[in-house]
Each structure stands twice: as structure tokens, then as C-alpha cells.
Design goal:
Helices cover 22% and strands 37% of the residues. By secondary structure, it is an alpha+beta fold.
Length: 112
């Protein structure tokens, strides 16, 4: 199994969720986070004064999938979340040793 951790723009969340649903990926955890990468934040003006926002709002998605489904999920996120601009985000892929469904005690791929 794989954990797919994706950091995307908040305005892309609904599109990504819908696209994942269409390929049969239902289990997802979503969190609002702040961060920065190469974008290094933005400078804005308010009443004539410039100020810098160096931690930008992002959305973090955590998805656990079977090994054979990982590439399709990754490709779907990339296609749906990309704008072509700096700040589109990143995807991190990690192996998952085990999963336990608390309600039933099922383990492994059955619990995903």
C-alpha cells in the first residue's frame, strides 16, 4: 500500500475530490495548512502599505491506496490540481506497512 500526501491550492480541492471520486478513490483526509516553497509567499498592498505573506494557505490531502492504484491517483491529482503556475503544490508518496479498520479490526488492503 501507498500513502499519497498531496499539498494543493485550496481552490482546487473540489475539482480534485470530484476527479478522485470518478476513478473510485473514496477515502481521503483533508486539512487546511499553511506553507511555502519556491513561491516564497506574496506581497500585497493594503491602504498604501505593502506587507508580505510568507506562509500561504494550502490544502493537504492524505490518501491510502493499494499499490496498483497509486499511479492513477497521482496522475489524477496532477492533472486536476495543475494550473502551470508556481505554487501548484507537491505530492509525496510513501510505503504503508499496515492499516487497521478500527470498527471491524480488518487489516491490510481489506481495511483500505
Amino acid at each position: 500500500m501507498k500513502e499519497i500526501l498531496a499539498i494543493i491550492r485550496p481552490n482546487k480541492l473540489d475539482d480534485v475530490k470530484d476527479a478522485l471520486e470518478k476513478i473510485g478513490c473514496h477515502g481521503i483526509t483533508v486539512a487546511e495548512v499553511k506553507g511555502r516553497g519556491r513561491q516564497l509567499g506574496i506581497t500585497e498592498s493594503y491602504r498604501g502599505s505593502d506587507y508580505r505573506i510568507d506562509l500561504l494557505p494550502k490544502t493537504r490531502l492524505e490518501i491510502i491506496v493499494k499499490d496498483q492504484d497509486a499511479e492513477e491517483v497521482i496522475e489524477t491529482i496532477v492533472k486536476t490540481a495543475a494550473t502551470g503556475d508556481i505554487g501548484d503544490g507537491k505530492i509525496f508518496i510513501s510505503p504503508v506497512e499496515d492499516v487497521v479498520r478500527i470498527r471491524t479490526g480488518e487489516r491490510g488492503e481489506k481495511a483500505v
